[in-house]
Amino acid sequence: MRNGKIYVGRGAGENKTLYGRIRDYYQPAYLAHPRNETSLICRALLKYGMSNFALLVLEFVDTSEMAIEREQYYLETLVTPYNTQKSAGHSLGHGLGVPHSPGRIESA
Fold it and tell me: How many Å apart are CA 100 and CA 26, to the nearest integer?
């Protein structure tokens, strides 16, 4: 994003291909779906528009296990304000039923 904020996520896994992940982020209906209302990255994409974001593939790996391991590495190495869960492997980044605080949601 132009402001330098970063979001890290796996492009595949949990029945999601890299193409599927990218396609979802270009679909306003997906971004605005009620299940994504607390997702900071979905809210930011809707608010600021895709033209204010860049999609970068950091690396390709061979297995889902390696993808989770590398995702965890990037979560620990980079400053990722759009990632509210700092543990890799969650299907939606906020999928353990842990709600975001209202202030955190509004900051998107």
Answer: 23
